[in-house]
Sequence to fold (224 residues):
Amino acid sequence: GAGVSQSPRYKVAKRGQDVALRCDPISGHVSLFWYQQALGQGPEFLTYFQNEAQLDKSGLPSDRFFAERPEGSVSTLKIQRTQQEDSAVYLCASSKPGTSRYEQYFGPGTRLTVT
Amino acid sequence: AQRVTQPEKLLSVFKGAPVELKCNYSYSGSPELFWYVQYSRQRLQLLLRHISRESIKGFTADLNKGETSFHLKKPFAQEEDSAMYYCASFSGGYNKLIFGAGTRLAVHP
Fold:
C-alpha cells in the first residue's frame, strides 16, 4: 500500500507570500502529525490531529501557521506571510492507535525555501 | 521541558568497527524511547523502540534509567549503515515525538 505522501516536494516562496502544504496520510490512520525540521536539526512537533479534531497545536510557532484536516483524512498546513525563518523541511506523519501505537509513518517532506 | 540530546553530530568509523551512537533524555516519568533512521534520499523511518527490546539490522539499544541514556549500538558496522540517526522520546498524551538533533553515521570501506 501507499505510504504517507506530501506535496509539493519543494516550494520556493518570496517573503510575504502565503503557502499551503498538503499531506495524504496512510488510509485508515486516525492520527496525523506535522513536524518542522530546520537545517541540521531534528524534527520539531508542530500540531496533532485525531481524525478531524486538532487536539494539540502547541508547537505552531506563530499565528501565521494554520493547519486543518476537515474530513479526517488529507491535511493542509498553511503558512501566511512567509518569513525567512520559515525555511525548513515540513514533515507529515500518520499513525493508527491500537496497532503499533507508537509507530509514526513519515512522508518524504516538503522543503520550503523563503527568499 | 522534556529533552533528547545527541551529543555527536558526526560519527565516522571503518567497516567492521563497533558503533555506539549516544542519546540522553530528560524525563521525570517512565520514558518511551525510539531510534529513527533516515537513509540517503529516503524518508524517516522507525529503527527500533525500547519497549520491544528487539535487534534490528544488528542494532540494539538499552534503556539505562540511572544514566538516563538510550545509546544505539552495533558490534560490526556495515557501509549500508551510513545514515542520519535520530533518537526520540514519546511525549505523553498525544504520542508526539521529541527528537534529538541527530547523528550522522559514516561507515568507510
About this structure: Chain A is about 0% helix and 50% strand. Chain A touches chain B at residues 3-4, 31, 33, 35, 40-45, 48, 50, 55-56, 59, 91, 95, 97, 101-109 (CB under 8 Å). The radius of gyration of chain A is 13 Å.
